[in-house]
Each structure stands twice: as structure tokens, then as C-alpha cells.
Amino acid sequence: MAQQERAVRTRHAVIQAAAAVFAERGYAAATIAEILGRAGVTKGALYFHFESKESLARGVLESQITNDHWVPREMKLQEWVDLSMTLAARIPHEVVLLAGIRLSADGQGRAMFGSAWPAWMEVVRERVAAAKEQGEVLAHIDPQQTAELFVGSWIGMQALSEAHSNWADLTERISTLFNYILPAIATPATLIKLDIAPDRGERVLQEVSRVPALAVGA
Amino acid sequence: MAQQERAVRTRHAVIQAAAAVFAERGYAAATIAEILGRAGVTKGALYFHFESKESLARGVLESQITNDHWVPREMKLQEWVDLSMTLAARIPHEVVLLAGIRLSADGQGRAMFGSAWPAWMEVVRERVAAAKEQGEVLAHIDPQQTAELFVGSWIGMQALSEAHSNWADLTERISTLFNYILPAIATPATLIKLDIAPDRGERVLQEVSRVPALAVGA
Fold this sequence. Notes:
By secondary structure, chain A is mainly α. Chain A has helices at about 5-30, 30-40, 45-50, 55-65, 75-90, 95-105, 105-115, 115-135, 145-165, 170-180, 190, 200-210. Chain A folds into two domains: about 5-65, Homeodomain-like (Arc Repressor Mutant, subunit A); about 75-215, Tetracycline Repressor, domain 2, CATH 1.10.357. The interface of A and B includes residues 158, 177 and 179 of A. Chains A, B: GO terms for molecular function: DNA-binding transcription factor activity; transcription cis-regulatory region binding. Chains A, B: It comes from Streptomyces beijiangensis.
């Protein structure tokens, strides 16, 4: 195995292990010792990639943002829905996403290592701004405000879904969220064409796995 | 001072002190010793009212639900808006409410002492159900779903507001939330009559303080 490939694998193992520990225990209670044990790497290997627990948290948050599941769509509001619904479908199964939610919700930690929120807002803002340029969106809509409203509501729907069903109803709740906010955002002609069914995310993920070249990051 | 009056005052002092400590440190890091110190009461007096830290948390959560600021309105959707906007206006200044937010957001604690969420959902559900009976609401709306959507979004907007502005923009964000969801809920004839301006809560609070008899709990 080439040295570079080994480094990539080690980094990946450390991120997965750190994510598992952060997701289970939260940032404050997580220890480097437990992350080392789960990753099955040496202390030296871990510190080669991450100098501190704080930089591990940052690494986990950064590794969330990938283009792997992003399929460009003609209707930019559908692209926003698809990005959101695929994320909702992935959250219960991906420890890096679960860790990101817990780290982002940690008020004290956030001051040190940031959160997933600004990047998520920017993803939404870009889609709504592009949709506005294409005439899909009502004239008075401010994309930045829409992005903050959506990400804010999303954070709370996540919290409810975790508390009520351990994430099982997340896609249902995010579909409901779109149902309630899109009439205030989309033009009627766009609204009627949007697919926001709870299983939308699952269908897009299947589409990407069948034709990986569809996705931008492929 | 009559014995009963003294007991009420002690209980109030303990709840305020516990709320301050829970709001600042969270449930896990809070200690009975610190709560005692802030309340200025004896250990015996505290344990007369609350047998454990857990029952203190429950006491704080229960003491949030009062009718002091509830003004009945002919339009039940306006009543819902008013209840929400007065709550948003009070949160930055009332330690019992701040403690309730932090306790409710504590996933581990929630299993022990519950959260403010179910009571808050029920307040919303009742108003939307009454509004539906009066024809203020679109026919397909399910009041329980609307209540869960609103409380879920509310929780996240609170989190964003705390992170971005230490609560200063909360009334603005809740006003925005109503702006985005009410078109999917209210009939057009009701929608046009609703007052959801960011300063609505402050104005209702002034109305209640001028004419306390207006409020149901007075």
C-alpha cells in the first residue's frame, strides 16, 4: 500500500471513530483514548492528522460536506428539496452526520470548533438564489432569510425526531416542513411540480447509486 | 408572615435559584449546593419542597406554564400568535424560561425530568383546533401536525437565535417563522387580518400590564 493511501485510510478511520464517540458521548465527555481504541491506530498516527480533540471535532464537521449525493436539477427548488431529503434519509445511518448534529448543538463547543449550520445555510441560500433568478420563487423572497428560516426549523425538527422516534420519522418531518413553508416561497406554477414526498430522499439516493456519474462529486 | 406564605416564598426562591443554575451550567453540572447558596434558604427548607435535583428540574419546567400573559382573542390564530410572540419577548429576560430551554434540549436529562415541549405543543394544538372549528384554517390542516411542526421549528429558531445574537433577534425570527408557515395554514380572509409583526409580543405584554384583568390568569 502506498504511503499516501495508508495516510488517507488512517485519517478516515480516525474520523469515523471520533464521530462515533462524539455522537454517543458528546464533545466534553469524549476522550482521545477512546477514539484511539476504536480507530485501531497508534497515538502517533492520530496526532499526525489531528493535533487535538478540538481539531478532531473540526475534522468531523468538515468531512460532512461532500458532493456525493448532489444531483443538479433544472428546477433549483427541487435541487434544494433533494439535497435536504437525501440528507434526512442518510442521517439515521451515518455516524459522521449524527456526530455533526450533536457537535453543532453543543453551545460551549460551538465557540471552539464551529458548527455545521453556516455551511448548510449556504447550500440552501445558493439554491434559493438560483431559483429566484429562474423565476421559481415569489418576488419578495430574500434567499438569506429563507436559508436561515429553513436551517433553524431543520435543527428543531431534528431534535424532535431524535426525541420522539430516534430519527425514524425524520424524512416524514422534513417533508412536512417543506409542505408548510413552500407555499410562501415558490410560485404556484413551480409549487405544483415539486416532489416533496417523504420517500423522495431514498429515491434520489437509489438514482445516484444506479448512475453514480449523475452526482457532481462522482 | 403566615406559615403558608413563607412556604410559597421559599419555593419561589428555590425555583428561581435552580433555574439560574440550570440555565447557566446545564443539568449535569448543576449542584444542589450552588442552588442552596443562591436561594439563601436552608437545606431542610429546600428538601421540604424538592426531594432531588431531578424534582427541581421538574419544578422549573412546570413553573413555566402560567396563564399570566394569555389574552383570549376572537381569532384563535391571533391567540396562538400572541401566546408565541409574548413568550419570545419574555425569554431573554426570564431565567425560568431560559432554564426550560436548556433542560428541554438536554437529551439525557429529558428521559428523567421531561421537557417543556409536550405542554407547548398542546397549547398550539388547542388554538389551531379552535381556529379550525371557526373556519380560520384551511380544510386539510391537521392541528396536531401543525403543532408539532411549529414547536419543532420554534426549538431550532431558539437555538439559532441564542447562537447568533444571545436571544436579541428571537422575536424577529419567530415573526419570520409565522410569515413562512401561516400562508399554508390560514384561509386568505384570516391571513390578511393577523398581526405577526416582530413587536407584537411586546405590545400584548404592555396591554396586559395596563389592564391585568384582560389576562386569564389574573
